[in-house]
Amino acid sequence: MISNIVLIGFGPYEIIALLLVILILFGGKKIPELARGLGKGIREFNSARASIEDEIKEGMKKNDKKELKE
What we know:
The structure is a single chain. By secondary structure, the protein is mainly alpha-helical. It has one domain (2-69). Helix content is 83%, strand content 0%. It has one helix at residues 12-69. The chain is elongated, with a radius of gyration of 21 Å. The N and C termini lie far apart (57 Å).
């Protein structure tokens, strides 16, 4: 699975080394908290993005209907 991850020029050994450094720096107990916070942030970002996309699409539909009436 790790070999399927494609990061900017990082191979599987570099990714493993990076994960080990993160484990050493933050410890095993702190990593789940960081992952939860990251997941929550990503979910909030995607929700906000979807909301903005919906508003833009709705505005475009209203604009198209307005132009058809004219």
